[in-house]
Amino acid sequence: MTEMNATESSEKKSLNFIEQIVEKDLKEGKNGGRVQTRFPPEPNGYLHIGHAKAICMDFGIAKKYGGVCNLRFDDTNPTKEDVEYVESIKEDIQWLGFQWGNEYYASDYFQQLWDFAIRLIKEGKAYVDEQTSEEIAAQKGTPTQPGTESPYRNRPVEESLDLFQKMNAGEIEEGKMVLRAKIDMASPNMHFRDPIIYRVVKTPHHRTGDTWKAYPMYDFAHGQSDYFEGVTHSLCTLEFVPHRPLYDLFVDWVKEGKDLDDNRPRQYEFNKLNLSYILLSKRNLLILVKEGLVNGWDDPRMPTLCGFRRRGYSPESIHKFVDKIGYTTYDALNDFALLESAVREDLNARATRVSAVLNPVKLILTNYPEGQVEEMEAVNNPEDPNSPVHTIEFSRELWIEREDFMENAPKKYFRMTPGQEVRLKNAYIVKCTGCKKDEDGNVIEVYAEYDPHTKSGMPEANRKVKGTLHWVSCNHCLKAEVRLYDRLWKVENPRDAMAAIREEKNCSALEAMKEMINPDSLNILQECYVEKFLADSKPLDYLQFQRIGYFTPDKDSTPDHLVFNRTVSLKDTWSKISRK
Ligand code: ATP
Ligand code: MG
């Protein structure tokens, strides 16, 4: 291999398969060398982490190849859609750091699609069917057996035209009539067996009001919208593979022999994100919200982008995660631990280190002068050589973690136990002298003596001591509520588990969810103490509570009642639990 070839092939390797396709198309001069993509959410819920994978692909490809990615709301189903969702989707895309070229709506094309449907009826390529959806389904046949033609299939064009007008004028009840494309009831591709392309919906549309009563189906709207807009690469997930021939056929029909050059959108599919212990799909998330199983779309236990944001995930950590998992053409179940490790990696570089005690017990330094207060220096982020510092007050009475003291400790316990020295972070080395207990034997105070020559920065501070503990000063700290989150589901693959439960018990999605939900996914600690520095911390501040984990102030937090969310613990405890 020549040197040139070696470089070329290693570059090829690092491209994902969609990038390889785009580069090939560009080389071949398809679409005049243009790259245009779109992100096409249906505004029927909030975006989730699966959408982030699609967003990074759609916007990423356009950015990389000097093209544009438009945002197109796929709003063809007025019963489920709402402007609230439109707004949240825009906010979430921008939070991920992307900006669309144009904001489009499938509903912008209702007139064009209507005209196209009329043309198809006139050309004998579509007809109004008056059968029920059950009858139509029963005639579909199976992949190995041809379907049965509808008795309405060969009705006169004039009749179909007239009925189609009536469908849209509100004269036909929902479910009584549909418009079907006349393709091939014996096709091995089930999507070609005279697919339904229009149905009646009487709910007003969030943008077009009651102008329309006949609405195009997804398959009749998506490819044509791509074509109208000049999309070149229509990227979607694998479940649309069987739809692709129909996508291409409708694009052929709508092009009407125009544009004989190669200008046309093409659909490419990649694998959906499926994550362990996470249930995606807006339909499912809507049930959780509506039934009150969580506290809204942005509940920090939700896999929505607003949920992750509220929980303290950075957009960069989501990008890191998407880079790690990549894009393939087969379904997989990714480990949630991978997402968490991306978050830790990113927050390690970003988070301000602070002290917080979540399960406090009082430590009294019996030889420290009463009333004395020292201001200790704490580095905001030791990962950053130019990090700023802040001060934390130190005094005779401190809060430490209950788990950091043991009266009768085993050998390898390097924390506080009588006779043993530990370092108090950013302060002194102290030696434990004992504790006081209540009648039930619970430790209520721990005692120690500090060594005044060991303040951080002094020569004797380097004395070898095995444990370092965090603390806050009792008279100089703030009380806070801390919310600890655990996985929302008890089962590793909630998507498949839900399907299995529903099949076995013939029950609703909600009932299946109730069986799978983890009743202990939220643990609220009311009596925590944090250093004063956090008095004016705000949501989206990235914090590390030293030795505990990453945290962020919740939107419920006020100066009088601080509330923090745990983003992720410092170490991966989940995979340890699941390995047991
Ligand atoms: P949901 O089932 O969650 O409602 P959807 O596919 O109906 O998802 P849309 O709003 O229709 O959601 O999809 C917008 C885009 O996001 C589509 O291109 C879709 O393929 C993609 N998408 C949806 N879920 C995932 C996922 N889990 N992983 C990757 N891409 C996804
Ligand atoms: Mg959908």
Structure description:
This is Glutamine--tRNA ligase. Residues 468-553 form the tRNA synthetases class I (E and Q) anti-codon binding domain. The structure is a single chain. By secondary structure, the protein is of the alpha/beta class. It folds into 3 domains: 106-216, Glutamyl-tRNA Synthetase, domain 3 (Alpha-Beta Complex), CATH 3.90.800.10; 282-352 and 480-579, Beta Barrel (Ribosomal Protein L25, Chain P), CATH 2.40.240.10; 354-478, Ribosomal Protein L25, Chain P, CATH 2.40.240.10. The protein is built from 16 helices and 25 strands. Helix 4 links the parallel strand 2 and strand 3 (103-105). Helix 8 (218-229) crosses helix 9 (244-255), helix 12 (315-325) crosses helix 13 (336-350) and helix 14 crosses helix 15. The longest helix has 16 residues, at 49-64. The radius of gyration is 31 Å and the shape is elongated. Residues 1-8 and 576-580 have low confidence and may be disordered.
